[in-house]
Amino acid sequence: xxxxxxxxxxxxxxxxxxxxxxxxxxxxxxxxxxxxxxxxxxxxxxxxxxxxxxxxxxxxxxxxxxxxxxxxxxxxxxxxxxxxxxxxxxxxxxxxxxxxxxxxxxxxxxxxxxxxx
Length: 117
Known about the structure:
Blueprint: H1 2-30, E1 33-34, E2 41-42, H2 48-85, H3 89-106, H4 108-115
Antiparallel strand pairs: 1-2
Helix pairs in contact: 1-2, 2-3
C-alpha cells in the first residue's frame, strides 16, 4: 500500500508542476494581440510594466523548473549507473525515465521558445 501512495504523490506532484507550467505560460497568450501588416503576433499587453512583470515571473518560474530538472537529471544518471552495475533492468528503465524527465525540465525554456510561447 505504501508503494502506491508514493506513486500517487509523485503523479500529483508532476501533475501540479504541469498545471503551474501551463498557467504561467498562458498568461501572455491570453493578452496576445495581432500586430497586423506582417501577420505576426506579439505577446504584449500594451503596458510595459505588466509585460516586464510577466516576463520576470515567467523567467523565475522557468529557472525554478530548470533547477529542479537538473537535480532530477543528475539523480537519473546516478540511478542508471547504479542499476547498470547491478544488472537491474527495471532500475535502468527508471533511471532512463529520470534522465528524460530531467532533460525536458532543464530545457523547457528552449522548448517553449521553439514552440513560440
